[in-house]
Amino acid sequence: xxxxxxxxxxxxxxxxxxxxxxxxxxxxxxxxxxxxxxxxxxxxxxxxxxxxxxxxxxxxxxxxxxxxxxxxxxxxxxxxxxxxxxxxxxxxxxxxxxxxxxxxxxxxxxxxxxxxxxxxxxxxxxxxxxxxxxxxxxxxxxxxxxxxxxxxxxxxxxxxxxxxxxxx
Length: 168
Prior knowledge:
- This protein is an alpha+beta fold.
- It has one domain: Peptide Methionine Sulfoxide Reductase, Chain A.
- The protein contains six helices and eight strands, in the order E-H-E-H-E-H-E-E-E-H-E-E-H-H.
- Strands 7-6-1-3-2-8 form a six-stranded mixed β-sheet, covered by helices on one side. A two-stranded antiparallel ribbon has the order 4-5.
- A hairpin with a 2-residue loop joins strand 4 and strand 5.
- Helix 1 packs parallel to helix 6 (156-163).
- The protein starts with a strand and ends in a 5-residue tail after the last helix.
């Protein structure tokens, strides 16, 4: 199993989307790379902790590659939007890729270069090693499974895409 953390706006929808992809075996909402040792959702909403809402995923590379995961991720975000996805605005809603295995960094950089070639404006996806990780409170785990009518900036067609994704 391999691990990566992705931030793409509100973590509820990102977690739901990624949890539907075959080969992704675990998802968890979390706060990542802030400037305090620990935090809570309430503190992150005050916009002074430096944390991003992220989703930790574990995946089986024999079923899905990191490159494929990133290609799916890019479809659910606006990569040129700084600190905003959908109706959510603030630094906690920034986009980011946070790696735990340094060998993944060159692949991620190449992926971001390919993505940038599709846009005239600069992409705003943060790329950093995962430094600080705080699991979100239980109420935020599997939020859209537990609250099917809950807010989500990701459209239903993308959940279908995730469910039906087939390895290239």
